[in-house]
Every structure is written in structure tokens, then in C-alpha cells.
Write a structure and sequence with these properties.
Helix content is 29%, strand content 24%. By secondary structure, it is an alpha+beta fold.
Length: 175
């Protein structure tokens, strides 16, 4: 694909290219166009600092600038997904607007992010110690354990107790 440059919305002194580069259109007020050298942030994304139309300096991610310039965001999605998982590949064919949930799902399906299991999951109500207690209770009582009693004691659903004991699926399969 041939390289195309377009003016970046709200940053009229700069242009973005379809292959993921940003350039100043009036470099140091000389009238020259200069490709900017981005910096790598701690999360592995490329970023740069630009002067916006309100004359404020903003640190902004390159993929966001390219998406704002080239990709129509019909559904007003807030995040940008790197389709191939390479955070520094900001070509328009590699980025897309997405929701937070879509971004996490893509990362998990493509093994770019591990699902947070057990007490690392923000929705977890139990600790690993409590999960072990539930399994120990089942072993002590044999097959006559009472799921409802355990669910009430630990303030979780009976289904959660069943998943913990059978180790079939869920947040606690690793314990």
C-alpha cells in the first residue's frame, strides 16, 4: 500500500501516515516536514508529545493518532486493538476501534494476556485458603457434604461450590 499522509484532527500542525508514522508539517517553523521519533512507554506502546489546537502539549499514543485520523469510529468505541498483537505496529490495517471488553477478549483468545484466576480476579469473593477449606470439608464428609451450607458459610453460590469441588472450570481450577 502506498504511504498516505492526512492531517490529525485537533492537532493541525501534524500529520499521520497510514503506515503508523507522525510528522510535523512546520518543523521548528521552517516549513519543512519532519517525521517525529516516538518514545516507547512502560506498557510497550509508542507515544509522542504534540501541541494541540488549544496550544497545549499532550502526550499521546501513536496508534490513537493514526486511528483518529484514518479509521471512522461509528460506534464511539474508546479503545484501539492491535490485531496482530504487536504494540508497535501502528499501520491502519493492524488497528481497529474496540470496547474494553472486546480488547480483553482478543488478548485472551490470542494468548496475549492470561485470564486472572483465583484471588487475582477482581470479582473473586474467596481466597485460596478458603477454596482449600471447601475442598477439605468435602473430603472429610465424603459425598454427604452440603453445598448449600458451604455456599451460605462462604457467601457464594452453590454453583461456585460445585465448580470448586469438581475442579471443572472457573476461577479456582488452578488451586
Amino acid at each position: 500500500m502506498e504511504q498516505t499522509w492526512k492531517s490529525i484532527p485537533n492537532f493541525s500542525l501534524y500529520e499521520a501516515s497510514n503506515d503508523g508514522f507522525i510528522r510535523s508539517i512546520n518543523y521548528k517553523k521552517t516549513g519543512r516536514k519532519q517525521i517525529l521519533k516516538p518514545a516507547l512507554n512502560k506498557s510497550g506502546y509508542l507515544r509522542t508529545v504534540l501541541l494541540n489546537d488549544k496550544k497545549e502539549y499532550k502526550s499521546i499514543l501513536i496508534h490513537r493518532l493514526v486511528a483518529m485520523t484514518f479509521i471512522v469510529n461509528i460506534n464511539n468505541k474508546s479503545q484501539i486493538n492491535h490485531i496482530n498483537g504487536i504494540k508497535t505496529d501502528n499501520r491502519i490495517e493492524n488497528i481497529e476501534w474496540c470496547t474494553h471488553q472486546e480488547n480483553i477478549r482478543h488478548a485472551t483468545i490470542n494468548k496475549m494476556q492470561k485470564p486472572r484466576l483465583g484471588s487475582l480476579n477482581g470479582n473473586s469473593k474467596l481466597t485460596e485458603k478458603e477454596v482449600k477449606e471447601i475442598r477439605d470439608y468435602k473430603e472429610l464428609k465424603g459425598f454427604h457434604y452440603n453445598r448449600k451450607l458451604l455456599a451460605n458459610k462462604y457467601n457464594v453460590s452453590e454453583c461456585c461450590i460445585k465448580e470448586i469441588i469438581t475442579r471443572r472450570k472457573g476461577l479456582w481450577r488452578h488451586v
